[in-house]
Amino acid sequence: MRVTTALLPVASLVTFAAVVPTVAASAGTPQPRVVSENPVNTTPHVLDGIVNAFALVGRTVVVGGEFSAVREARGGEDLPRSNVFAFDLYTGRVLPDFAPDLDGPVAALAAGPGDTVYVGGAFGAPYRGLVRLSVADGAPVEDFAAPVYGGKVTSLVRLGQALYVGGDFSRVGRSPRTALARVDAETGAVDPRFTVTPGDGRHGDPGIYAMAAVRDRLVVDGSFSTLDGLRRPQLGVIDLTTGRVAGWRTEAYAPACKPNFPSYVRGLDLSPDGRYFVVVTTGGAARGTSKLCDSAARFETYAKGEAVRPTWVNRTGGDSLYAVAVSGSAVYVGGHQRWLDNPKGADTAGAGAVSRPGIGAINPATGRALRWNPTRERGIGVKAFLTVKTGLLVGSDTTELGHEYHARVGMFPAT
């Protein structure tokens, strides 16, 4: 069957993009050098909608978002795919037998045990927002069941036998859980020992936007002011050795940005060694202020105290950042930004600003923009990154990356 490449309704895309800011996973693959500015020519094209998430299972890249058709880079027919598909990392060939029929957008992916992948989002019955699929044929793994109720899944992180699930739901299976849960990676059974609960959703129900984990720490951000009743405005760290909120607190995201952004944190990612993490935000132009609207900020994971401050901040000067990937050699940031190094700008290029349309890289130590500048068509923005040994995968809603046609999926190769 041939599928036309008509775009999904714009209103649908904008709405879902607003409520699913990004997806973050566990600490990424270390890369000794910054990736090339020239994308590979093998990645397939997503012909409509938006890409929100990646997962790597063996040599297979699983892609999730809100779309209906894909096409291989070498050409050929349009292939129908309902919000999720998979391709070979090295050849770009789309897996013909992985074609699940999900009736709603996918926001989160995580590699599962064996040849499987967890898929989270806003799709309905029979999976209700969370399913584990076989990568070989797209069939659900029958032994896994963790349906969510009262909302959607926006972030997934797997650590060994545990799968952390974040979103804006109120229940997982038969267990009440507000926005955050830990389930068994094999069965989906809710872990009764992990009950950390986000509270005070900043003008709405609480929700988790992004998560990242390494060893003994889970970092979460989202629309909340407390975790287990402890003050944690929009950002918190959980000690996985105890299952309790860590003694780590920052007031950096307590000040309000523009009124239409009551919660403005978006993506986050941990460094490969877990020592630090970076948070990116939206929020609106805020020239001449200490507020972290429209910025990327580094924090030290094992800092202690009630007033942890960012190690550095890089501001765009008024444009949103949605996604971040930390490779060790670089902090890659993406959104619909025009500039980096722009603390004096307010929808303008202030003194010292550097042009970085849609994508850029920051020095992890200094917080200043690196020279890497492939550019991309800005659109809504980059919503997904994934660092792999062979490069950096990029997912968005636009079709130009590195001055070439790469529809919604692209990869910059390792150098």
What's the layout of helices and strands?
Blueprint: H1 10-19, E1 45-46, E2 50-57, E3 60-66, E4 69-71, E5 79-80, E6 84-88, E7 106-111, E8 116-121, E9 130-134, E10 148-149, E11 153-159, E12 162-167, E13 171-172, E14 175-176, E15 180-184, E16 198-199, E17 207-214, E18 217-223, E19 226-227, E20 230-231, E21 235-239, E22 244-245, E23 265-270, E24 276-281, E25 295-300, E26 312-315, E27 321-326, E28 331-335, E29 339-340, E30 354-355, E31 359-362, E32 384-388, E33 391-395, E34 400-401, E35 404-405, E36 409-413
- Runs with pLDDT <50, length 5+? 1-25
Radius of gyration (Å):
19 Å
How many beta strands in the DSSP annotation?
36
- In the CATH scheme, the class would be Mainly Beta
Share of helical residues: under 10%
CATH architecture: 7 Propeller
Structure class: mainly beta
Assess the beta-strand content as a share of residues: 35-45%
Features:
415 residues; mainly beta; Methylamine Dehydrogenase, Chain H; 36 strands; 2% helix; 38% strand; disordered N terminus
Sum this structure up briefly.
The chain has 415 residues and is an all-beta fold.
Descriptive account of the structure:
The protein has a single domain (10-400), classed as Methylamine Dehydrogenase, Chain H, CATH 2.130.10.10. It has 415 residues and is an all-beta fold. The N and C termini lie far apart (39 Å). The protein contains one helix and 36 strands. 54% of the residues are buried. The strands form twelve sheets. The protein has a four-stranded antiparallel sheet with strand order 17-18-21-22, with no helix packed on it. The chain has a four-stranded antiparallel sheet with strand order 23-24-25-26, with no helix packed on it. Strands 1-4-5 form a three-stranded antiparallel sheet, with no helix packed on it. A hairpin with a 2-residue loop joins strand 34 and strand 35 (404-405). It comes from Microbispora rosea. Residues 1-17 form the signal peptide. This is PQQ-like domain-containing protein. Keywords: Signal.
